[in-house]
Structure formats: structure tokens, C-alpha cells
Design a protein that fits this description.
The protein is of the alpha/beta class. The chain has two domains: about 1-155, NAD(P)-binding Rossmann-like Domain (Rossmann fold, 3-Layer(aba) Sandwich), CATH 3.40.50.720; about 155-260, 6-phosphogluconate dehydrogenase C-terminal fold (Orthogonal Bundle). It is about 45% helix and about 10% strand. The chain has helices at about 10-20, 50-60, 75-80, 130-145, 155-175, 190-195, 205-215, 215-235, 240-260, and strands at about 1-5, 25-30, 40-45, 70, 95, 100, 120-125, 150. Strands 2-1-3-4-5 form a five-stranded parallel sheet, covered by helices on one side. The longest helix is centred in the last third of the chain and has 23 residues, at about 215-235. It is elongated, with a radius of gyration of 21 Å. About 30% of the residues are buried.
Length: about 260
Amino acid sequence: MNVAIAGLGLIGGSFLKAAEAAGHKAKGCHHGEREDFSWADIIIVAMPPSAIEPWIRANEATFRSGAIVVDVCGVKRPLFEAFKETGKIERPWHFVPGHPMAGKEVGGFANATPDLYKGASMILTPYPYMGRGPLDTLEEFFRSLGFDRVVVTTPAHHDEMIAFTSQLCHIISSAYVREPLALDATGFTAGSFRDMVRVGAPDPEVWSELFTLNRDALLPVLERYISRLESFRAALASNDPTALKRDLAEGVEAKKEMSRQ
């Protein structure tokens, strides 16, 4: 497979290295560069959300007929709408919004690895008129890079789930590490602390854009989380061990229910 990767940060760089390791002919270009992509079967666009549509518009004249273009940013509805076709098929190449469920707490090409996607999920939110051909090609390709599964869903469901499974986690971590006691934590930490501080939106410019784009999905999830925290706060403030046990027990049951899925 001939694969072009536009954007060589952690995610794009890892796609480049993984594709090369899997035996694909792969070439990368940096954010902002323009090239001839007529040779590429698959074009992965790994850029900040606001840069993706302008880059595609600037380079699409070089995309070959039948090429599959996949963006990999963390919010899907805006780009899905931007490239939606009306009526007849209006372009010779295919656009499939995507999102790899993998990453690190550090960014940049220097931290990219060919095994970043081993065992991960790749989410795709294709247009219903597209047909199975491009999706079958993408599934075979992504599995060759080490992805364990390819999940096909709608942009709205993706954005709702990512608000919970990713974006809320970054908000919680960012708030957690700003506790003054964190500066004196050496010698007092174990796995719980490391898990809490590992993420935390490492690139504020990119993550603030993602949060804003997904505001309508993220706000309800954040508000429900705050409500649960308020319940713990109220139980502590009123010295109510019964309420604390109730809230903790509900958490235990929720984890059990998750494990049964």
C-alpha cells in the first residue's frame, strides 16, 4: 500500500513508522507543506483540527481517483460536515473521518514509535453512501499497523463517547495536578497518582480547540461528573459516613457493570 502522512507529530510520526515497519511504501510531510500525492492510495492527515480542511482543500487536486483520505483528529462532526457530499458523488477520492485510540503524554516526532497502535482501536465515521470498498481497504491497512479492532460509528456517537473516555480525563488530570500538595508528592506516590497525572492535555492549544469543538458533548459529561464530586463533598462536609459508603458502593457496582460488557 502506498501511504502518505501529512503532519509528523506523535500521531502522524507513529503512523509513518508503523507503516514502514509493516512493509508499506510510506512518505511523510510536515504541516503546511504541499506536494504531489497522486502516488498515494491512502493519505492520513494528522494535524490540529483547524488545519485539516485548509490543507485538504489546498492539496486535493493532486489526489488520485480512488484515494482514501483519513483525518485523525479527536472530534469528528465538524470535518464530517465540511466534506459531506450532496446528491451525486462530487469528487473522485474518498474522505473517511477517523480517530486512533492511542497516544502518549508527550508529543512530537521524536516520541513517535512504530508500536504505538499495537492493540489499539481505530474509529471510523464514514458517510453512509460510501459503500464497503474503502472501509475494507482501511480495515486491512489499520490492522497491518497493529490495531486490534476497527470501530465504525457515527460522528455524533464518536464525539459523545470521546467526551467521556478522553476529553474528561484530560480535564480531570489538568485540575488534579494543580493541587499545591503535588509539589511535595515525592515519596508519597504510587500507581493511583501516576495514572492521574499521566495525561492532562499536554498541548493546551490543540486540546482547547478540541474541547471547544466538542463543547456540546463535553459539557453534559463534565456537569454529571461535577455533580458526583459534589455528592462526595457534601458527605464529607456533613461528616456522613453512610453517604460516603453509598457513593463508593455505587462506584464499585459501576465498575462491575463495565467489566460485564
